[in-house]
Amino acid sequence: MIFLHYILPLVLFYFLRDKLMLLGLLLGNLIDLDHVYYRIIGKVGWFSSACSSLGKECSIGFYPLHNPYLALLFCLGTLFLFSKKKPLRLCGWIFLGAFIHYLLDALAFFSGVMI
Ligand SMILES: [Zn+2]
Fold this sequence. Notes:
Layout lengths: L3 H13 L2 H9 L5 H8 L27 H10 L8 H26 L4
Helix pairs in contact: 1-2, 2-5, 4-5
This protein binds zinc ion.
Zinc ion (ZN) binds next to α5.
């Protein structure tokens, strides 16, 4: 179910037909690159979880880009959506995409299902 990060923007695009929104929401998922970074530096095994002691996949609070302070920053960054300038609106969509990413990660953590 990890594909929900990518399916949700596509579903929204189906209804809203906004390419800038689709691009921004998909780019917001790039915060998951910290998972790759931790595996490259060997802090987490390639096929294991960052918190294997909990017995499930988790990311918020375990990876550098998955922290609550950045979530708050990204939430505030969604105010750029109200800008008239297209590059700033794209930033707003990216921030919203990253914030939605956090919500889905948190939902996955608390439900125990990989979303
Ligand atoms: Zn994530």
